[in-house]
Amino acid sequence: MARIKKSPEVRSKELIDCAERLFFQHGYEDTTVNDVIREADVSKGAFYHYFVSKEALLEAVATRLAKRNLEELQLLAEDPSLDAVGQLNALFAGSRRLKLEMAPQLKNTFNALFKPENVVLYHRIDEALQAASLPIITEILRRGHAQGALDAPDPETAAMMLLQLRLSVAKMMHKALQLSEAGDLDGAAAMLDSWMRTYGTAIERFLKLPEGSIEVTEPGFARTFLQA
Amino acid sequence: MARIKKSPEVRSKELIDCAERLFFQHGYEDTTVNDVIREADVSKGAFYHYFVSKEALLEAVATRLAKRNLEELQLLAEDPSLDAVGQLNALFAGSRRLKLEMAPQLKNTFNALFKPENVVLYHRIDEALQAASLPIITEILRRGHAQGALDAPDPETAAMMLLQLRLSVAKMMHKALQLSEAGDLDGAAAMLDSWMRTYGTAIERFLKLPEGSIEVTEPGFARTFLQA
């Protein structure tokens, strides 16, 4: 059967779609370039025209996931009617809404990402997310510091600190999901709530904000997320 | 010549000793399993009885280094003549001293660990280090909070936050080493100094300590480390 001629953009997108599906279904380590080639129904030559290696494909999957996540959040971060603290809170609220909307997919993603065979995938997505978020957070902190709304004399370093702390939220969400799936919903919700409150406190104190000004979480969020 | 019969513990320790020496002398990449086998004077079969791969051997080397570090640091953390803040500072001072003493080995270790092909290994060592450090830091924070020396109502969560931030120090040290090796020692030292100061500030603010009470770094440390 003759292969259908497709534009490079379409072909490249299809390869990333296939790779994403296979990575999450079977794990990154257990997916080969040949699996992707078969699933996408392209020739080996065509594949290597777009991606030099499985790692390059991983990079593309990670970057696209990060970009999708961030496009929506960036709009919130740029709302001109909000001050810097309002923008940070809008980011957290948006992130909570996304988490609830995408809870079933997120649960699968977490379960896939935290498998030992996916450490490389997880790290790459992390790095892509951090790289994409850094300028957004840095700009909020820069503006907030200039306006005297918060204290971050070195906004880029401060943004890196906040993003580093944020990594632990994903770890905690995964732990809470495991606990909840093992039957202890109450314990899991309490752990996640407590972790997110401490994360909020850490941000407030680090940026010298009044207690209660950062709303990382809201009452009932952890339970709703775990049950969604 | 007949091989001398040795106990499994002795043999395994000798292999790790040899690997450590060779990794640090020639670099991880340029050391083969055959080099280790030759240096340790064991058969190939004997080697693979103890370690399934070169990566397993590197993990053993790094884990042992981490354990050694922690043993010494634990003594500092338990010094009864110090209050909680003094114990945290003793940990940082001890960690700086170890870093300077072991700078050449550390540089090789970082260079090996931050290679893309070592992400899995890096992640595992990180986890081992975090798990081992958590009870030490938790206990310091618990005692400090009870004595009113610092504010950490949930000491274990607070300790996890501090350890999460600490992970970024290793990342930054590696970035600074790369920059320094590329010829920009001044830029590298400035970046590492600034990062460590911000890390100290983050800890002070998070634990509600007076400014300047946490001494993560000291003047000239970054440059001395990078040049060591």
From TrEMBL, chains A, B:
Residue ranges of every copy of the HTH tetR-type domain listed in the record: 9-69
Alphabetically ordered keywords of this record: DNA-binding, Transcription, Transcription regulation
TM regions (residue ranges): none
GO MF, one annotated term: transcription cis-regulatory region binding
The keyword Transcription regulation belongs to this UniProt entry's keyword annotation: yes
DNA-binding region residue numbers: 32-51
DNA-binding among keywords: yes
Gene3D superfamilies membership: Tetracycline Repressor, domain 2 (1.10.357.10)
Listed InterPro entries: DNA-bd_HTH_TetR-type_CS, Homeodomain-like_sf, HTH-type_TetR-like_transc_reg, HTH_TetR
Protein name from the UniProt record: TetR family transcriptional regulator
Lineage of the species this protein comes from: Bacteria, Pseudomonadati, Pseudomonadota, Alphaproteobacteria, Hyphomicrobiales
